[in-house]
Design a protein that fits this description.
By secondary structure, this protein is of the alpha+beta class. It has helices at about 20-30, 65-75, 85-90; strands spanning about 5-10, 30-35, 40-45, 60, 100-105. Helix content is about 25%, strand content about 30%.
Length: about 110
């Protein structure tokens, strides 16, 4: 049996202009705009196995901290602040403007190793 997991990040569109330009560019490039309860949000599934250089799908964003920080450095993140740390802190804030949803499950498949 193997453990599987998935994550999704949701950003309230009306608040996006208040955030650092590097985060705005990350959202604009990788997130898909959708309405939830009549309110516009940007949504992306977070995939650790892809890199920023090989990304093709809107609505799927890379989430490995080295890729996020590289993207932030190249897209105007304030000096001395890592984009991944800024995102983690924003998720911890209780504003519900940037949220991360994660789930894990056992896929009930037996793994066979030689």
């Amino acid at each position: 049996m193997s453990q599987q997991s998935a994550k999704m990040m949701i950003v309230r569109t009306e608040k996006l202009g208040e955030y650092p330009s590097a985060f705005q560019k990350y959202v604009a490039k990788y997130f898909k705009e959708q309405k939830i309860g009549g309110i516009s949000h940007h949504i992306a599934f977070l995939a650790p196995a892809i890199s920023s250089q090989h990304h093709k799908s809107l609505g799927v964003a890379f989430c490995h901290s080295s890729d996020i920080n590289f993207f932030g450095d190249r897209n105007g993140m304030e000096s001395g602040i890592k984009l991944s740390d800024w995102i983690k802190q924003k998720i911890k804030d209780d504003t519900q403007d940037v949220i991360e949803i994660d789930a894990s499950w056992d896929d009930c498949l037996l793994s066979v190793y030689d």
